[in-house]
Amino acid sequence: MKEKLEKVWTKIGKFLLWALVAALCGCLIALVVVHRRVIIAWIKGEPLPELPEGKCCHKFCKKE
Question: What's the predicted TM-score (pTM) here?
């Protein structure tokens, strides 16, 4: 009985580990896709692109 329980927890642990790895890879891919213009400019040493008109990150917006 104890051996079966250990096998079940091992399988659950492996599944959770792979799920965590998949989620982290998905988040990393999403961040790269969203920020691809900034990453390319940074690699080339060019000035960073400006935000489109009307869009603003709350931390960097000036309150009017």
Answer: 0.62
Rg, C-alpha atoms of the chain: 22
- What are the angstrom distances between the C-alpha of 32 and each of 8, 13, 36? 36, 29, 5
Calpha distance 49→61 (Å, rounded): 16
The angle, 0 to 180 degrees and rounded to 10, between the axes of the packed helices 2-34 and 36-44 is 70
**CB neighbours of 38 closer than 8 A, spacing ≥ 6?**
48, 49
pLDDT in tens, 49-60: 777 676 666 665
